[in-house]
């Protein structure tokens, strides 16, 4: 087991999902009681999200095909033969190549214009994703660093380590897990608030990570986790993998 001082140094590796399973589990337990590490993980995660959103995306295949098809319709210019008398080069080229040059210009403008519009759309989408990631990190940080934050730990039936952090003042909860296998295709993990026996949907996840649970804890006495069909279910369709009692 690492000392507390060693665990502080793992914030960056945790945010990048670069820890070994045993290190990740130890750090997850440490994270639930360390405000400084929570803030560091928040900053690292936000930066990683921005970097991921800023990665260049290649133009779609149909764009290349459209340009090639248009180029095939433009005839190549014939070789220029000197007439033996001086001419104004610019005038001669415009006269001889005028229709073809205009056609080629139109094709090029359309092609590059399409690429520019597509790139702008991609940039806007990336910016929106980065902003959403920032808001998510800020919300997670607010709950985990709240003065009244309370943390409980548990394990799933498969042995994955889990934690739930609640803040009565913010009326929100965060679920964290490590060692949770990725859900199979067509399946998803679903979180639940247990309102005295009535299960209330609280969000979906595919694997390890920190999730801001949907809805407010209210008077929920526990948090449950089940494996559901993709998209989730209004009520659990399988036995709980975990039922973690919340602090009073």
UniProtKB/TrEMBL annotation:
Molecular function per GO: sigma factor antagonist activity
Recorded superkingdom: Bacteria
Keywords: Cell membrane, Membrane, Transcription, Transcription regulation, Transmembrane, Transmembrane helix
An individual GO BP term: regulation of translation
The keyword Ubl conjugation is assigned to this record: no
GO CC terms in record: plasma membrane
Domain Putative zinc-finger, chain residue ranges per copy: 5-37
Main location: membrane
Membrane topology listed for this record: Single-pass membrane protein
Cell compartments where the protein resides: Cell membrane; Membrane
Domain Anti-sigma K factor RskA C-terminal positions: 104-240
Keyword Nucleotide-binding: no
Name the UniProt record assigns to this protein: Regulator of SigK
Species whose genome carries this gene: Streptomyces xanthophaeus
